[in-house]
Amino acid sequence: MDRFVTRTKKRPATATAVAVATHNELETTDERKRTRCAVSGDEEEYDCPSEGEFSAPLPWQKIEAEALDLDYTVLFSKAEADRLFKKLEEEIEYFSGEKAKVQVFGKFYNIPRKQATYGDPGLMYSFSGVHHLARPWTPVLEYIRDCVTKATGHTFNFVLVNRYRDGGDHMGEHRDDERELDPACPIASVSFGAARDLVFKHQDARGRRAPAPRIAPVRLELQHGSLLLMNPPTNARWYHSLPVRKRVPLPRVNLTFRRILRDGRGRAAPAGHSAPP
């Protein structure tokens, strides 16, 4: 049986190495105190964590391997996650045209998912050969970002939104190691909609010519309303992907919150590694 550790804002000192997180086990925490707050001008309300809510800590699950450091929890109740998912479907404007393509070895291909970028004014992020200027935060994105900050103690100024129509949409193996990302800040991944498995593979275990897999892949099912922290040095040594799952008929929206460093002109530094489709 997987063992869970709890914390308020900082990562726990003790941990258990596991390969799969299960939603039911993570739901065993005591019901948390909540306060009401408006998310948008239409007077719709959501269960917003109060400043003291996380004194009853979330049940974090630690996943560790060589140079792999992940923390996983279910951040939002099903009712909250359902409403946030609906609001994201209404608010997010996804890229089209050339910005909806990816560059691989000098050629552009359609991205097998929808993408959008939001964040603080003037932030530019480059990946897959395309430069993206962050749109202003929407109310629901600000709300989710603030919930993540309260749960983790980390602040974020940018989010990449990926929408998967069904199990046919996917993301190839890549590392989020662009030079403009703050290397001291984890990447916070929040998932809504259909549960999909995220697969982590060590850089030395990739490809047909890789030596005998001394380090096994790690497969993690990301549930509706869940939060995954990819802590340093994970992205320096491990690739991750969202494989095709033909039996998944429903959509999924994933938000990866990041902290981008600015250069002297107030823009993000030049991009580094580009992610494949």
Structural notes for this entry:
It is a single chain. The protein has helices at residues 23-26, 78-91, 139-152, 234-237; strands at residues 5-7, 35-38, 45-48, 58-65, 68-74, 101-104, 107-110, 114-119, 124-127, 130-133, 135-136, 158-164, 171-174, 187-193, 196-202, 218-222, 226-230, 238-242, 252-258. With 277 residues, it is mainly beta. It has a domain at 61-96 and 108-263: Jelly Rolls (Sandwich). It has a nine-stranded mixed sheet. It has a four-stranded antiparallel sheet with strand order 13-18-15-16. The two termini are 36 Å apart. Interacts with PCNA homotrimer; this interaction is enhanced during the S-phase of the cell cycle. Interacts with nucleolar proteins NCL, UBTF and NPM1. Interacts with XRCC5-XRCC6 heterodimer. Residues 24-33 have a biased composition (Basic and acidic residues). Its EC number is 1.14.11.33.
